[in-house]
Design goal:
The protein folds into two domains: 5-60; 63-109 and 132-178, Immunoglobulin-like, CATH 2.60.40.10. 32% of the residues lie in helices and 34% in strands. It contains three helices and six strands; from the N terminus they run ααβββαβββ. The strands form two sheets. It has a three-stranded antiparallel sheet, with no helix packed on it. A three-stranded antiparallel sheet has the order 4-3-6, with no helix packed on it. The longest helix is centred in the first third of the chain and has 30 residues, at 31-60. The mean pLDDT is 84.
Length: 179
Amino acid sequence: MYFTILHWITLLILLIIFILLCIVALKQTNKKIIFSMLFANFLVISMLGIFSMFVLDKYTKVARLENITQKRILMTESFSISGQVRNIGKFTIGRCKLEVKLVNNPVSGGNLGGSNMFNPTSGLKELFGRKTNPKPNTVINEFVIAKNLKSGELRNFTVTMPYPPYFQNTYLNYKLYCH
């Protein structure tokens, strides 16, 4: 994770506020109040620091996916996504992850309807029985597609993941996370 100048300025401001609040707390005469004020000060400043780092990462480290192509490879029962990732922000990005989500969509497949979609069952079977459906309907994989991406830089990537053969009318969704 790269800290930008904005990260360092935010940390400096929070440190100054922490020191000022500690000085105010130490001027109290009651010992119980001093410790509770110092503890509350530490908690509040720590939470502000953590949240502000996440917010700054979200708005300073921005990337975009370009020229995405998707292929299903039947011979190996896999799915491939190729494309490019571009840093459109003004700061270096430490790492970009691509989350690929494949969802089997049986409702639009035409073979299910009405009573087949909802079958009430007993909870005892779930507690004491074996799992009857070992085939998941959602497959999620994460891939690191870029590291140390400079401002304005463009990188190619290709990711491959297994494609379950029983999926029909698949819904594909992918998201890019950079920090």
